[in-house]
Design brief:
This protein has a domain at about 100-240 and about 250-340. About 40% of the residues lie in helices and about 10% in strands. The protein has 16 helices and 10 strands. The longest helix has 18 residues, at about 315-335.
């Protein structure tokens, strides 16, 4: 990984010398340099500004507090009118793409975000199609003030919602106040829910299970809202990104079959996820007209305007009533004793229309 990191630093330094980049900032903790003096000298030689902070004694799940603090500190050192690329040591991004990124030549980024949350769109490398607000955080680019919206130290995710996943909480938090139904989602679909998507190999009839979820009036409509946000607030492109050594993640095109039928793509850990690497699949499904293969709740969630979604809440009493249906459904499709904890099933007749 160190070789990949050095390659990226030399690349960024060259781009800075060519006028594409103003500053290169490396945020780390003040206790990391033991045995790494040569790496520190390498960074300084390439005009990297090193910011050393005291490491938080509690990192949190997946080091969530460390990641939030590092992003926060880095943004504090950057003028508010700048655009910012946040990346990681194991990531390499193609030079020509970076030139377009920093030179403002990607038109899709410089349009107002449709939800009203951000000023411009944010570039991300990919997103998960069945896991709400699970955007890739390997690297992203956007307006300084927009990226500040991704920083949050909100303990409700840990204390109230059992929703610790960094990928979700980094991106969903900015939407909670304007779109309060998302708080209901977090309270009903805690992190155990995600074990169904990619953490539990013992699910029986997995295809039927996920199809039923997507056809749920509540969860399906939330997925539709998620796609709407993705189309309007983000620009998705994984093609210029190399992750770990010289390997690109295989860009298997997302198809109707993989989305609605087999629900398994990739190999190893990633075979339990369905990732979308650009905006093309969403465009093909929803423009110029709705695709009949997508469940109706998703269609309605996507085409409901942001104004209609703003301030919206699901009927809480009906939501609570439908939790009872979850256990019955799960018992039909799998061995219940394989679950670590109960999952919540949201059934029909819940969505206020």
């Amino acid at each position: 990984m160190e070789d990949r990191f050095k390659q990226s630093i030399e690349q960024m330094s060259s781009l800075a010398n060519q006028g594409y980049i103003n500053d290169i900032i490396f945020v780390t903790w003040n206790n990391v340099w033991n045995g790494k003096s040569q790496l520190r000298s390498f960074l300084l030689k390439n005009d990297v500004k090193i910011i050393e902070a005291e490491e938080s004694p509690i990192g949190g799940f997946h080091n969530v507090w460390h990641q939030m603090k590092a992003l926060d500190i880095g943004l504090e050192a950057i003028p508010s009118d700048y655009y910012v690329l946040r990346t990681r040591p194991e990531v390499y991004i193609e030079t020509e793409f970076l030139k377009k990124l920093f030179d403002g030549k990607i038109d899709e980024l410089h349009t107002s975000a449709g939800s009203g949350i951000f000023n411009d769109r944010i570039w991300i490398s990919f997103f998960e199609t069945h896991e709400v607000f699970r955007y890739s955080d390997y690297c992203f680019f956007g307006n300084h003030d927009d990226l500040y919206n991704l920083v949050n130290y909100d303990a409700r995710y840990d204390v109230l919602w059992n929703f610790r996943m960094i990928h979700v909480r980094m991106f969903i938090d900015a939407y909670l106040e304007k779109y309060p139904f998302l708080q209901q989602y977090l309270s009903k679909y805690d992190e155990n829910w995600y074990s169904v998507w990619h953490g539990n190999n013992n699910i029986k009839n997995r295809k039927e299970f996920i199809k039923a979820r997507l056809e749920s009036p509540v969860y399906g409509s939330i997925i539709g809202f998620y796609y709407k946000v993705t189309m309007n607030d983000f620009y998705v492109d994984y093609n210029p990104v190399y992750f770990k050594e010289n390997k690109k993640r295989p860009l298997e095109p997302l198809s109707d079959d993989s989305y609605m039928n087999n629900f398994i793509t990739g190999k190893g850990k990633d075979r339990k996820r369905i990732s979308c690497w650009d905006n093309d699949w969403l465009k093909s499904q929803f423009f110029p007209k709705a695709n009949s293969d997508i469940p109706d709740p998703i269609i309605k969630g996507f085409y409901r305007s942001f104004d209609e979604w703003e301030g919206y809440k699901f009927n809480e009493e009906l939501l609570d009533e439908e939790v009872v249906k979850e256990k019955e459904y799960i018992e039909e499709i799998q061995d219940v004793n394989l679950l670590k904890s109960p999952l919540r099933w949201i059934g029909k007749n819940v969505l206020n229309r």
